[in-house]
Amino acid sequence: MKKEETKAFRDNWIRFVYNLQDEICTALEAEDGGAQFKTDNWERAKGRGGGGVSRIMENGAVFEKAGVNVSVVYGRLTDKMKKVLNIGLSSGEGSWFACGISLVLHTQNPFVPAVHANWRYFELHDEAGNVIDRWFGGGADLTPYYLFEEDVVHFHTMFKDAIDPFGTELYPLYKKQCDEYFSNTHRDNEMRGLGGVFYDHLKVSNEEEATRLFAFQEANGNAFLKAYLPIVQRRKNMPHTTENKTWQEIRRGRYVEFNLLHDRGTIFGIKTKGRTESILMSLPPTVKFVYDYHPEPGSEEDKLLQACKHPKEWV
Amino acid sequence: MKKEETKAFRDNWIRFVYNLQDEICTALEAEDGGAQFKTDNWERAKGRGGGGVSRIMENGAVFEKAGVNVSVVYGRLTDKMKKVLNIGLSSGEGSWFACGISLVLHTQNPFVPAVHANWRYFELHDEAGNVIDRWFGGGADLTPYYLFEEDVVHFHTMFKDAIDPFGTELYPLYKKQCDEYFSNTHRDNEMRGLGGVFYDHLKVSNEEEATRLFAFQEANGNAFLKAYLPIVQRRKNMPHTTENKTWQEIRRGRYVEFNLLHDRGTIFGIKTKGRTESILMSLPPTVKFVYDYHPEPGSEEDKLLQACKHPKEWV
């Protein structure tokens, strides 16, 4: 497929992610009622194409640290890049294009879960600039510090509802992939949170698929606020103790471990010389690393931990 | 070289690291005056050989989190292990043996530097159990949060003095390797601290070298307390503000980034299914990740940062 023919599609996707960024930031600011997002426009270092817009809120009333980032980046398909993308192209360099929105929200109140979501689009081009492969990826996952089953059920249900029109076999598959992906393999596969949905390499093989998968991405992106904000509203004013906050900070340590040791997005960003501050905005504002910490069996903290160790069907 | 012939050497090294662990923990407890080390004996999971002794102190008067670990581990030289060790053995599985002491000390007072040291010994065996390669590695590095030049000079001088009898060309080389190794490549090579010495693959090619390199390791190990304790004594009672502590916690974020993204020891441990709690004892007790934080130019915080960005000769 000629490069020019996918330009309109690419541009539509770029427009969609920037609009979604605006919509989500506006809603989060309203929900917070205190802090506002700071906007950083950035460009990649010389010789590398593209840039992005990072929007960051810190020390809000509700959100202790929130990042909602868009990046639109491209470059030559070097051997290193092929390795990072796990692509076995036989000859020639070609080029790649990637555009996505990525958000991570860390909250003040330990009863409000942290949340992460990402929706992305990739293209690979041959040396002549023709599109030889293109695909979507994405997902959203919830990281509670205390287990309120109704919150987890609500979050999963909203994404199931968004995905079901595209095939009822998809939510169970993407839910399972999410459990498997956000797993600290060095801690006996303990999950960093209670999942959601995760998918990658949804191949755009023809124009019909392009339309269908774009709509699928839109459905997921548009489900985010409906999935997350009601949970925030239910929990944000719940009184909590120093011990609750400490537990949140200990669990945030697992979040850091996952992101820096295992997360493909983070490692992709770091290896492709992405903007470090935008990539690492995902790291929680305050964290505690306590040696060999185990919550008391049967405690509320332990209930959450057990849920992270034993994935279950929430919907 | 027959496996049995190196047994006495291995045993001597194991004895040395356990003695050094005792000596260092005793001295640190005395310096702390408050908390004591907790001892965890551990064994590797079934099917994997060896184990170790982790000694951890938390919430001391001086040391907020301190770990002094010994591990004595061995196993079959699988393809995965060859990849981790970066070994290109042509055929056969063989086996490997590793024994080392590793310590990381994080302090309450932000004017007292954190410190890390590690001294290790490796053997590779062919399928018949003969030693086909063996080497030492190690080093020590200082991570201050404020720049007291006399502290950094003292630390470097003590290791230079320990190393010089083995060749005056070595300290400058190992100092440079340390600067290069403990570098956050994703942050324009900003160092996590102000260095020390780092060396690896000091090949034990014959018995004379075995004796000489063992003595070299001893000289380094024995230099540690002399290099570090005087700095602790000078700084531990200095009054400090919340802002000083916050800066320490922000810099500790860089420590976490280095250890989880770049540190070969951490990644080796995680990939070889080492004991997670012992490996990750290196992570600081409290950490802050602030988006795009820059200290005020010319401030004390900035002076430290500039020193981390621009390595210099301290001795």
Mean pLDDT of chain A: 94
Structural class of chain A: alpha+beta
CATH class descriptor name of chain A: Alpha Beta
Return Rg of chain A in Å. Answer: 19 Å
Within CATH, the superfamily of chain A carries the name: Coproporphyrinogen III oxidase, aerobic
Q: Label the overall shape of chain A.
A: globular
Order of helix and strand elements from N to C terminus of chain A: HEEEHEEEHHEEEHHHHEH
For the record, the count of structural domains of chain A works out to 1
Number of strands of chain A: 10
Quick structural overview:
The structure is a homodimer of 315-residue chains. By secondary structure, the first copy, chain A, is α+β, with helices and mostly antiparallel strands.
Q: Could you characterize the architecture of this molecule?
A:
- The structure is a homodimer of 315-residue chains.
- Chain A is α+β, with helices and mostly antiparallel strands and 315 residues long.
- Chain A starts with 6 loop residues before the first helix and ends in a 6-residue tail after the last helix.
- Chain A has one domain (3-309): 3-Layer(aba) Sandwich (oxygen-dependent coproporphyrinogen oxidase).
- Chain A has 9 helices and 10 strands.
- Chain A has helices at 7-32, 79-85, 149-163, 170-181, 207-235, 242-261, 264-271, 276-279, 300-309, and strands at 38-43, 49-58, 63-76, 95-107, 114-125, 131-143, 183-184, 190-191, 196-203, 286-288.
- Helices cover 42% and strands 26% of the residues of chain A.
- In chain A, the strands form 2 sheets. Chain A has a 7-stranded antiparallel beta sheet. In chain A, strands 7-8 form a two-stranded antiparallel sheet.
- Chain A is globular.
- The interface between A and B is medium-sized, with 28 and 28 residues.
